[in-house]
């Protein structure tokens, strides 16, 4: 390896590592005025435990919609458009039912 030209050594090692990106933070998308719209982290973790949500995420069309939103510059107008798509609405409803379950009606107190 010592005698090999730089280009050969670089090829053997692979491309240089990309600079580390800072971790994603909720403040990246929410301002102070949106504080009431934040979901506690422990409730967000419930999303990972949902079999129903996992099933929905197997749909490649839904995954492409989510990637499109993630990469979009104008997320709000895109979200308004996607809220007309039944598959996206089903995904959003599933997420909301997990983090904010509907209150049970007609339940007798114990």
Automatic annotation (TrEMBL):
Species this chain originates from: Calyptomena viridis (Lesser green broadbill)
Disordered: region residues: 1-26
Zinc finger HIT domain mapped to chain residues: 42-99
Protein name: ZNHI3 protein
Coiled-coil parts of chain: none
InterPro entries with a match to the protein in the record: ZNHIT3_C (IPR048371)
Name of the encoding gene: Znhit3
Basic and acidic residues bias spans: 1-14
A Pfam family matched in the record: ZNHIT3_C
């Amino acid at each position: 390896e010592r005698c090999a030209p730089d280009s050969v050594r670089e090829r053997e090692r692979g491309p240089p590592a990309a600079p580390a990106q800072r971790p994603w933070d909720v403040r990246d998308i929410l301002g102070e005025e949106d504080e009431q719209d934040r979901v506690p982290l422990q409730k967000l973790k419930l999303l990972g435990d949902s079999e129903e949500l996992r099933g929905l995420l197997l749909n490649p069309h839904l995954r492409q919609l989510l990637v499109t939103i993630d990469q979009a510059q104008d997320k709000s107008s895109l979200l308004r458009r996607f809220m007309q798509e039944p598959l996206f609405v089903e995904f959003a409803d599933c997420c909301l039912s997990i983090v904010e379950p509907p209150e049970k009606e007609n339940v007798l107190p114990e």
